[in-house]
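To the team - MTE complex, inputs and output below.
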Amino acid sequence: MTRSPFSPGFWRSPLRGPRFTSVLGLVLLAGITVLFLTGLASYAAYNPGLSPVNDKTPEKGILGFYLFSWPTDPHWLYRLNQGVHVTLGITLIPVLLAKLWSVVPRLFTLPPARSLAHALERISLLLLVGGGLFEFVTGVFNVQLNYVFPGSFYPLHFYGAWVFFAAFVAHAVLKTPAALRNIRQLREEPSDLTSPRPDPPTVSRRGALWFVGGGSLLLFATTAGQSFDGPLRRTALLAPHGWAEPGGGPNGFQINKTAVYAGIDAAETSAEAWRLTVVGRTGTVRLSRADLLRLPLHSSALPIACVEGWSTSDQWWRGVRLRDLAALVGYDDGDPPDVFVESLQRHGAFRRAALRANQVADPRSLLALFVNGEELSPDHGHPARVIVPAAPGVLNTKWVARMTFGDL
Ligand SMILES: Nc1nc2c(c(=O)[nH]1)N[C@H]1C(S)=C(S)[C@@H](COP(=O)(O)O)O[C@H]1N2
Ligand SMILES: [Mo]
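Output:
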């Protein structure tokens, strides 16, 4: 009866055993906890409370209980958060796969449920394995092919994370004590994971762990560079935006969507045609580029940090402070409100975004006209774009046409 995967003798690898599974499980316990926390933080950073524009999960209900005003300090906060989230997620893929492989015989235990408690435990494992695979697959797809999920990635990954993490916590509570015992023991006690009829080993346990760790290291080494500029970026072989340095010069840093992709018509962005509409408490003001240049201009050094994990180092932006624009339409008491920003772009998920009052108030938050001493290039948002410290790239709207100040 060794032909059937339901018989223990079918599983022959001498590598399987409680200790191998426990080591991988403890790595995942730490890693997935960090993924969950950085994921929740990333979601908060989108300002999903500023409905309806930013909120891609309007039915979040109590799952949004923890939302808070994302701070503007330190200015690299989102860059760090998202770099860790994406790089760690990719690095853990070999560990996750090895862990699933190590427990696959348990998928085939008979009878499928010995008792109600056992049935419930198996259903929770289904949520754990299914939820884990779902989170990793949707995450990788969003990073690699951000066009397959037009807007729907956020609710999928967000709800999936809660289902997965609930099952993960239950599993960790049940299994961590035994896992710690397993790795402390000098001699391994056989368990249901240990093959009763093992094949002769072709690699040691230690060798197998090195193999998994080596796979993780390789993924780490070919991903992490997307969070840096210069030669390091070229090591990000696996990151879609990693090595594609968009030309040289002051505007030669990572571009997400180009002006052509976004359908921006050069005729609309010319100095003659373009006007910025600013709406607020005291009415509407329309400003030409020349009008903006007559306002006080300020500089700030800030990165672009995308939800996909890539980021640039600090660039020198120059433009008009958001709070100075708020002051033009009646918020001149030093206490500006939220703002809703719309671009010239007519289609696409990221053509508008809302910023919180704390982001508008920060003196480093600009409507930038220049970067690194040159006018913005068309791809970086010419004639004007938003740039805010510590915020996700998606809130840094390019090709801005209209700003509406007021509480959202
Ligand atoms: N109008 C508009 N603004 C936009 C986007 C867009 O698609 N349309 N993409 C956003 C995203 S997701 C990011 S990461 C940054 C990227 O800015 P960059 O292309 O200048 O690096 O721009 C943001 N601003
Ligand atoms: Mo982005």
